[in-house]
Structure of Beta-ketoacyl-ACP synthase III:
Amino acid sequence: KNVVISGSGLWTPEHSISNAELVESYNQYASKFNQENSKAIEAGEIVAKPYSSAEFVEKASGIKSRHVYVKEGVLDVNRMRPKIPERSDDELSHQAEIALHAAKKALKAANKKASDIDAVIVSCAYTQRSYPAIAIEVQGALGIKGFGFDMLVACSAATFGVHRAYEMIAAETAKCVLVINPELVSPQINYTDRDSHFIFGDVATAMVIEHQSTATGAHQFDILSTKAVTDYSNNIRSNFGYMSRAFDTSPYGADKLFHQEGRKVFKEVCPMAAAHIAAHLQRHELTPQDVTRWWLHQANINMNTLITKKLLGREAKPGEAPIVLDRYANTASAGSIIAFHLHHQDLAAGDYGLICSFGAGYSIGSMVVKKR
Ligand code: CO8
């Protein structure tokens, strides 16, 4: 099909929160909560908040710190959520702003001007509003002609977005597509929940996808093919949505934020992802041994170790399956794209690589790529 990734961009928020800072704040919150509710806890009406531990977080997940768009408010025990000023309709929205940062970097890497792009896809776990689309706002801010739309596929939003771009180029419905993943997830993190307060961070990534004949980027990758699967599961869920206003329950309740059965996810998703990847490689008569670089979803270091071990029959060598979650944490769909962005320039022409997301939905999306 001659469709290539011709450039990528990464925007990293300037603020970060270490495990120690996050755990200290959570534990203070838990003490305060337990003191304030001591009678109800003693009476068995409320469950006491358990304490978190920085050692547990690093050991169970591999996460050491996470970046956040706005740090103010997150560690405040009387708030436990970011304090982000609401902007007027005339201002650039927060999510479009971070999308633009990554988009401009990807355009530069691909040697593209706004006039070269004819479609913009904003694909991520959440959009800050339903309409007008963030993609159309970004399109307008960059002065791009053509069309744009938003897509939500949780952890697989970035890969599924690239899949749509691939199909548009292959079908000649677009010549050059900008796919952006502004993962502004911190407002959806329940910082008062010991089991999930440490998991996520904010980031924005972008990719330029175009036909090989127009690509001039310094590091180009042929997309050999795409593969996707979804399988319904309630094990990762957020009930936040536009219906909240009509339900006579709190629109801010814990079920309206990210929550999961982490153990079940781990157990179910790892074998699914390994089987999916092996089948995708087989389509090109490749085996895992033929793959030089694995750019995998970044949710948990132990998941990636297990998946690469299942595929390769041995531990991945240093650099073979780069980990970025140690400092970015889980950035929803952007993880595999961050890994790609930071670790692709050293590949030689002809080297194979694999980009794969796995998570909520469940959803898995992959691209087999070859350095040009
Ligand atoms: N500190 C201390 N102890 C803890 C903590 C903590 N912070 N958290 C849990 N514990 C305790 C547990 O309560 C448990 O105690 P006990 O044995 O007494 O019951 C013990 O530690 C072990 O707990 P777990 O079995 O839960 O621990 P795990 O080793 O399984 O690790 C993980 C937990 C890290 C959550 C792990 O299960 C995991 O990573 N699973 C995979 C999860 C995953 O990939 N999820 C996908 C996330 S979804 C996504 O990627 C995008 C969604 C959209 C974005 C949303 C943005 C907000």
